[in-house]
Structure to design on (353 residues):
């Protein structure tokens, strides 16, 4: 006889399979981990179907940007210096600022677009992460201002890029932001520690509620965790694996632990022979990890012929200048802080003069 727990897992797997078919893109995972003695750690993967020319960019405070080309485009002057990862030379998708506030942008098919005929300010999702990093010090502060703006989408190679967003601060506060059904859906609280992709976040919470272990002492093979590459299953995987973490002994140990539990999609797993050469899901191109007290960004890049692991000390480059480094270079290892070059980078496209 099949147990109720097994039936539940079968139902989740079936629902996940439907989600994977209906979803045009599966990309990325994000996890936040608050520890007792070493602050807050953040891990995210960039899961994508091709090289997307990522760069790491450091921007000083006091620069003015316009977030969308329309008359309603939001204009702001950055309050904080920050470091971020870019995508396709178009915008910033992950990073943290000098006061320990962090933001991540992950793909979400269900994202709506704002009303260009309305009254609210508009920000392209390509620069929304940058807008958050530039303006806010805490999750609470960001949420107090979120309803002043709406999201517009950018396109690349004819495809509309849509997303949802996670924010976290050095106090361990966390929130998930989704602009769906033409309005903001906010999930605020430390319990919202994992984000993947479609379906919408509420469905992920429902999946986890149904699939989570009934007892915290369920470990190893006793818990039938789903393990395929689509986002519904990755969400459950990340929640469960993160729950197994023990207090780190150092910043390095914490980064290693969190990175080890963040689901990675193998480079070839999504491109099986029966897919006729078309990638059905996105492989993990790189992973990013950092601690919001330490402010050292760790990157492991793994795509094509590049396989690297390197880090940059943000505080050492926070000197009132803008810096830039190509993150997909195959020769990056260890401390690359000294290899950054002075450059205005991707966000120069949105700067006002």
């Amino acid at each position: 006889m099949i147990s109720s727990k097994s039936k539940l897992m079968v139902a989740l797997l079936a629902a996940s399979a439907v989600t994977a078919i209906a979803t045009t893109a599966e990309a990325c995972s994000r996890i936040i981990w608050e520890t007792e003695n070493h602050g807050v750690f953040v891990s995210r993967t960039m899961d994508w179907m091709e090289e997307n020319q990522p760069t790491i960019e450091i921007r000083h405070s006091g620069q003015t940007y316009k977030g969308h080309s329309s008359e309603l485009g939001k204009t702001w002057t950055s309050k904080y210096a920050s470091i971020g990862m870019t995508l396709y030379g178009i915008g910033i998708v992950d990073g943290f600022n000098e006061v320990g506030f962090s933001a991540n942008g992950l793909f979400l098919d269900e994202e709506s677009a704002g009303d260009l005929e309305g009254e609210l300010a508009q920000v392209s999702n390509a620069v929304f992460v940058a807008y958050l990093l530039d303006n806010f010090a805490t999750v609470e502060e960001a949420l107090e201002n979120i309803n002043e703006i709406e999201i517009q989408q950018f396109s690349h190679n004819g495809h509309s890029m849509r997303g949802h967003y996670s924010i976290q601060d050095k106090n361990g506060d966390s929130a998930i932001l989704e602009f769906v059904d033409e309005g903001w859906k906010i999930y605020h609280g430390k319990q919202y520690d994992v984000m993947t992709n479609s379906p919408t976040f509420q469905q992920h919470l429902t999946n986890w509620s149904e699939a989570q272990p009934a007892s915290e002492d369920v470990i190893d093979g006793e818990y039938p965790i789903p393990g395929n590459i689509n986002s519904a299953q990755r969400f459950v995987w990340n929640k469960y694996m993160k729950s197994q973490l023990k207090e780190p002994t150092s910043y390095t140990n914490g980064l290693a632990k969190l990175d080890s539990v963040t689901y990675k999609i193998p480079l070839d797993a999504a491109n099986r022979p029966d897919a006729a050469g078309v990638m059905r899901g996105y492989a993990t191109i790189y992973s990013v990890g950092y601690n919001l007290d330490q402010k050292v960004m760790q990157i492991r890049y793994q795509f094509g012929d590049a396989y690297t692991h390197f880090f940059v000390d943000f505080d050492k480059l926070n000197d009132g200048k803008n810096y830039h480094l190509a993150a997909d270079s195959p020769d990056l290892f260890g401390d690359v802080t000294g290899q950054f070059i002075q450059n205005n980078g991707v966000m120069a496209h949105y700067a006002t003069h």
